[in-house]
Amino acid sequence: MTLRVLIISDRIEFRQTIGHHVQLEWNSAHAAEYEPKLRGRLRPGFTGSAYDVVLLDHEVQDGRGLEWLEDLAERAAFPPIIYFAPPEAGTLSRRALTSGAAYVLARTDFEHPQLVEALRDALARRSNLLAETSRVAREPEPTDRFGSVRIRGHRCIRRLAIGGSSSVFLAESVATISAAHPHAGAGPAAARRPADDHSAGRTDAVAVRRGGRSAGAVKGAKPALRCRQRSR
User: Fold this and answer.
1) Which tops the pLDDT comparison, 219 or 33?
2) Torsion sign, CA atoms 144, 94, 121, 71
3) Would the pLDDT of 192 be above 60?
4) What is the CATH number of domain 4-135?
5) What is the maximum span of the chain, computed from C-alpha positions, in angstroms?
6) Where are the alpha helices (DSSP H) in 26-158?
7) Stretch 49-77: mean pLDDT, rounded?
8) 8 and 55 in contact (C-beta within 8 Å)?
9) Residue 176: pLDDT above 70?
10) Distance CA 101, CA 126 (A)
11) Which among 205, 207, 203, 204 has a CA at the least distance from the CA of 167?
12) Contact partners, residue 218, CB within 8 Å, separation at least 6
């Protein structure tokens, strides 16, 4: 099997160094490169299915690697991510692991065997995941999931933006849908009945903070919403 990796970094010398380490161990490996400074964010529909492992530099877009990590790690069936953090950045490394990194290495201070071990373990993870998904059909993503948290009463439509401390999603109120269609599930005729509630179709912009909390969540209670109401 040919190893396929995607190296994401704005530094050409860093991409070349990582590619050299990969091909030193796997001489037939395919090491693709992506430069965010020139090409911008990876499109929302990108799942990384063409790659076995993704190697992500913390310094992308002037140190916004954690934002990239959180975004990519939340994508369904995305390959394992090896994250290259600044040396002696213990707190940042822990944040990277909790944000979805499979492994964290010091970007300028790692040994070749360390990278090889991380790649081999990541490959094993990828292989197990693919084997599992081939045996069991994947369950549909819960409609009330917003990144790493779930917010009852709202259906996630899509992510609108991601920032340094939070993500913003376009959401639809489930309660509004139910009120607009009180006879939903009562039969074909009822299902075709037009809605009389003029608030039907209301959408909310929901902010979710990094670390698994929605904006406004306090004292361990159910996550509260801080929304900007918009009507279609």
Assistant:
1) 33
2) positive
3) no
4) 3.40.50.2300
5) 67
6) 36-39, 60-63, 65-73, 90-98, 112-135
7) 95
8) yes
9) no
10) 13
11) 207
12) 224
Query: Cβ(70)–Cβ(42) under 8 Å?
Result: no
The CA-atom distances, in angstroms, between 226 and each of 1, 23, 88, 163, 209 are 48, 48, 37, 16, 11
Q: Could you say which DSSP state residue 78 is in?
A: P
Compute the half-sphere exposure of residue 158: CA atoms within 13 Å on the CB side of its CA: 5
Long-range contacts of 33-42 (CB under 8 A, 24+ apart): 33/6, 33/7, 33/9, 34/6, 34/7, 34/8, 34/9, 35/9, 35/10, 36/8, 36/10, 36/60, 36/61, 36/68, 37/10, 37/61, 41/68, 41/71, 42/72
Other CB atoms within 10 A of residue 101 CB = 25
Q: Could you tell me where in the chain the CATH 3.40.50.2300 domains are found?
A: 4-135
Q: What single letter denotes the amino acid at residue 54?
A: V
Computed on alpha carbons and rounded to an integer, the radius of gyration of the chain in Å comes to 21
Q: Is 108 helix (H, G, I), strand (E, B) or coil?
A: coil
So what's the pLDDT on residue 18? Answer: 97
Residue 66 has pLDDT above 90, yes or no: yes
pTM above 0.70, yes or no: no
* φ and ψ at residue 2, rounded to 5 degrees: -85, 125
Contacts of 199 (CB under 8 A, 6+ apart): 176, 179, 180, 231
Q: What is the mean pLDDT of the chain?
A: 78
Q: Cα separation of 11 and 13, whole Å?
A: 5
User: Taking Cα atoms as reference points, which of 100, 6, 88, 89 lies closest to residue 46?
Assistant: 6
* Closest C-alpha among 151, 136, 126, 161 to residue 44: 161
